[in-house]
Amino acid sequence: MDKPTVSPFQSSDTAQESKLIHYKQAVGDFGHFIVYRLVLGGRNEIIGHVYTEIDGDETRYISTNQVGREIFPPTTEFNSIDLKFERYARLIDVNKDNQENQSRTNSKNYSSTKKNIAMTNKTQSTQKARTNQLIFIEYEKPTKEGHQITIVDSFRNNIGRIYKNYNEELKKFEYTSFDHEGNLLAKNEKLWVLKNDFISNRELHLENAQQRRIEANENKVQETEKNTKSKKQGERKVETKPIQENKNVEKFELTKDNKPLAQQTQNTEINEEVQDSREQELEDLRGEKEDERGEHDLER
């Protein structure tokens, strides 16, 4: 793409000071201009983008908001684009002022309607938490691979990516979009076309991303339950092991000589029988001696 004429974006210092918006050329893209709104404190806020298309001698301007949605019809007159963005910026100011005024009013009435406001805020927070939308995360400079934009939902589920690469044959930059698995979706030299493809299929992308999120949470819960069950079984085995060992010790109790108790009992019975036999023999010997002494006394 040839470098567009930048004269529509140039203005005198006096005119620039009175305007609420100003333009800045995107880094590395001569046909892309970022629209900024001047806010209090001297800060700049991005409110849109302007893309230029050159067809022969004709130059067209495509206008989108900050998330890539086309908000004005394409035109060859930049002055009309400039006026529409100026009104768009003032409308944003009015809406923000209304929101601030409403917030002040709610704060003043908070003491008298504390309970009702708390319930309302809770309901609004619940509704806001349930609202899901596409978010385009655009980086100031593409990576070495050309990755420039990541598309996610409100829960930060990955939906797709957009890459910017230079085509050597066409001698111009091209944009390529992929889904969350890296499958090719589309290729075009205009970035806003790829963004509109995601926006047009927003409901499908958000539903699929939400389903993947639910499945991932279910798998995580199942894995946690499985690990917990395995851990409990391991602890139960450790607890029952000493009990089983005690039963084995009682069943096969060992003496100090490392002989079974039954063998010790048998040896004790044998020792008792031997002792009784020896005592009987001693008694018989004593009886014989006494008989001999009696005979000697009678002879005398």
What does this structure look like?
The protein is of the alpha+beta class and 300 residues long. Among the domains are: 7-105, no CATH class; 135-208, no CATH class. It is 51% helix and 24% strand. It has six helices and ten strands. The strands form two sheets. A five-stranded antiparallel sheet has the order 1-2-3-4-5, with helices on one face. It is elongated.
In short:
The chain has 300 residues and is an alpha+beta fold. 51% of the residues lie in helices and 24% in strands. A 5-stranded antiparallel β-sheet has the order 1-2-3-4-5, with helices on one face. Strands 6-7-8-9-10 form a 5-stranded antiparallel β-sheet.
